[in-house]
Each structure stands twice: as structure tokens, then as C-alpha cells.
Amino acid sequence: MMGRKFARRPAWPRAAVSGLALLAAGLTASPAMAGFTQTFGDGQSISIGLGMRGSYTSAEDAAPSGTDRSNDFNLDSVRLFVSGSLTDTIKATFNTERDGDGNLKLLDGYARFEFSDTFNIWVGRMLPPSDRSNLDGPYFINAWSYPGVVSQYPAKFAGRDDGATVWGKLADKRLTYAVGAFKGHNRIAGASNEGDKLLYTGRLAYNFLDVEDNPAYYTSSTYYGAADVLTLAIAGAYQADGVGTAANPGDYSVVSIDALFEKNLGTAGTVTLEGAWYSYDTDGVADVAPGFGGASGTDNVGGIVGGEAWLIGAAYLLPGKVGIGQFQPFARYQTFDPDGVPFDIEQYDVGVHYVIKGHAARISAEYSTIDAGPGPKLDRFTLGLQLQF
Questions:
Q1: Which pLDDT score is estimated for 104?
Q2: pLDDT above 90 for 214
Q3: Is the peptide bond before 321 cis (omega within 30 degrees of 0)?
Q4: CA dihedral defined by 388, 146, 200, 8, rounded to 10 degrees?
Q5: Which residues contact 198 (CB under 8 A, 6 or more apart)?
Q6: How many angstroms separate the CA atoms of 298 and 323, rounded?
Q7: 381 vs 375, which has greater pLDDT?
Q8: What is the pLDDT of residue 18?
Q9: Where are the alpha helices (DSSP H) in 196-279?
Q10: Which residues of 318-347 are buried (b: 16+ CB within 10 A; e: fewer)?
């Protein structure tokens, strides 16, 4: 999926936190949408899809002057989705993403050996098993901006890493499991992982009501009343020598729990509630800076901070259409308590979606307040359009 990751430094300067929230909006994971499929017989086929997100943003003190509000029109994301099938078992996926410089980059590229509902193997660049927000990505979350204050699993680009995942769905597809091994963090001379230790990740999710209808182990944070959902999941990652320097390495680990509840109330609309908790551990070691050793933003080096984080979200899909869509007001709160810092990072988001065709076509308006510690809070208004074909 749902760019990503951004710099995470112990000092948490205000500009970095504001930039973090703005950047993450367009850069994480999303399940591919296949707009066109051509079959060739004997299990052979190719599918092509397109996704795009554009926005207008006005952020406090973000103009070039440093004191005026910004007025920015952004093409946040453009994604080309391609998947192919050689047989009913052997398949592949290739997805691209426009980066912040306007260049087209590899988002996903993996071979898929899909044997059954219960056991499958993916190998290549993909989303490691992780939290719901990361597996939603910007296209399937229930807000406009990605919750980058709390969702901070390390990655090369847009939540992805190179490795392998084994996944499946058990108990009539109510139980989804996914475990993987990936290249991981700080694989550069002088940083903690000179020994090329792997990052191990896993996720286990159980659907108590309707089964969430998503590809593989991907997720969504609303189904717009199409299903009654109550899902609880636990995810985590571990890498020996995952943070710090070669002279002073530390093990990295994260555990997160997320829950989603959605209930269709018929003529009374649909209510959605979401929550998540995260615990990031750096073994008491300060990580290197993201650009350490000349690393680029896609090298998965540096910037990890230990701490505890929480997310709470709610939405209400109003019954009946107004014109061609339905209105869905939403609210979300994020907080991160970084280790060794005397203040928390907080972000409040409120807004409304105009849902035209689920996640494939919606217009969003979102107002955010970001509190990064000492000094005044910053605010941001965003008007966004999302389309998937």
C-alpha cells in the first residue's frame, strides 16, 4: 500500500511534524483496483487499473514567507495498477506511484503463488503485514490524510519493503493471517544493520461479524454500509540491530492492536468506529538520522523513535443520496508520546466525505489541528478528490 516513511527524530521540530502529516497523505498503501481485465484462456489474464488523488491545501505558516497561509494545489498520488495471471496459481502484480518530485516509482512488484484461500506466498516488493492504517493506505482510510502521527512502521517507499509474505484465510475466511521476512531497516555502512539482519513482521485479524471483503491481507476502514463489521487484529515487527549505529546498535520492535466496528442501521444510516494502539521500542538506543551515510528517502535508513501511540476515529454515513452521492462526516484523533521527549504529538481531524461510488469516487473536506509541543498549534484545511478506475 497506503510514501512513507518520513523523518522521525527525537527533537520533533514543529516543521518536521507538520511536513510529516502533509507528506504521508499521498504516500502509503492501497489495494489495487482493476479497471479492465482481459482473459486469454487456461487461467491467463491481465488487469489494468488507475488511481489518483488531488487536493487543495491551505496550511498555517506554510507559505514561502513562513508566516502566511499556503494555497497549494497538489497531485498527491497517481497509481497505475497492473496484475497478470499465467495459471490459476502463478500470478504477478506491478503497481507504480508518482513520488513527491513527480517521478514514477515502483510501488509493488511481486510474484504471487496462490494455492488456496488458506495458504499463499508472495515474493518481491510489497506491503509487509502491519497495522490497518498502513494496509488501508490513503485510498481506503476513513479520512483524507494518512495518520502518520501514529502509524510509523519502517519502509522503503509508500509502506513497502522487499521480501516475502505467507498469508491465508481460515475459519470460513474469518481469520486472516500474514507473516513475512523483509530486508528491513538501517542496511547501510556505519548504521546498526551492517550484518544484514532481516525484519520479521506478522498480522492476525479475526472478523466477528461479516467477513471483510478485501484482497489478500489488505484492509479498508469503511465499507459504506455494505457489511456489518467487527474486526480485532494484532500486528507486530521485530528486527535485531534495527536501530542506531554500527558501534551502538539496538533491536527494534513494534506491537499494534487495531479494531474496526461498522454497523448499517438501515434508514438511520451507517456508523463506523475505529481504534488503534501502538508500542514502538528502540531498545533504549537513539536511531541515526534519515540521511545517514548518504541514504536517500527510499533506503529505509534512520528516523525511528520509540514511544506509545493511540488513534480513535468515528464516521457516520447519512442515509439517502443528495444528488449523486452521500455525505459521511468523520472525526479522528491521533497522539504519539515519544520516548525522552517532554511533550506529546497530537493531531485532530474533522471533515466530511461526499461518497459518490465508495472508495472509487469521493470528494473530501478535512480540517486538521496539529500540536507538536511548545508553541502554537498549526491548522490545515484540505479539499480532496479521489478516483479509482
A1: 87
A2: yes
A3: no
A4: 140
A5: 163, 181, 182, 183, 184, 239
A6: 43
A7: 381
A8: 34
A9: none
A10: eeeeeeeebebebebbbbbebeebeebbbb
- Please tell me the distance from the alpha carbon of residue 132 to that of residue 220, in angstroms, as a whole number: 7
C-alpha to C-alpha distance for 124 and 335, rounded to whole angstroms: 33
Which helix (H) or strand (E) segment holds residue 69: the answer is none
Put simply, whether the predicted model's pTM sits higher than 0.85 gets the answer: yes
Q: Can you tell me the distance from the alpha carbon of 101 to that of 96, in angstroms, rounded to the nearest whole number?
A: 14
pLDDT at 33: 54
Q: Is 225 helix (H, G, I), strand (E, B) or coil?
A: coil
* DSSP secondary structure, 262-305, as one string: EEE-GGG-EEEEEEEEEEEE-TT-PPPPTTGGG--TTS--S---
Nearest-Å Rg of the Cα atoms of the chain is 20
Beta pairing, strands 36-41 & 175-182:
unpaired
Judge whether residue 2 has pLDDT over 50.
Answer: no
Closest among 178, 186, 251, 274 to 5, alpha carbons compared: 186
Q: Where are the domains of the chain?
A: 14-388
Matching residue, cell 485510498: 139
Instruction: Kindly tell me the burial class for residue 38, based on how many C-beta atoms sit within 10 Å of its own C-beta (0-12, 13-18, 19 or more).
Output: exposed
The Cα 255–Cα 349 span in angstroms is 24
Which of 2.40.160.10, 2.40.50.40, 3.40.47.10, 1.20.1090.10 would CATH assign to domain 14-388?
Answer: 2.40.160.10
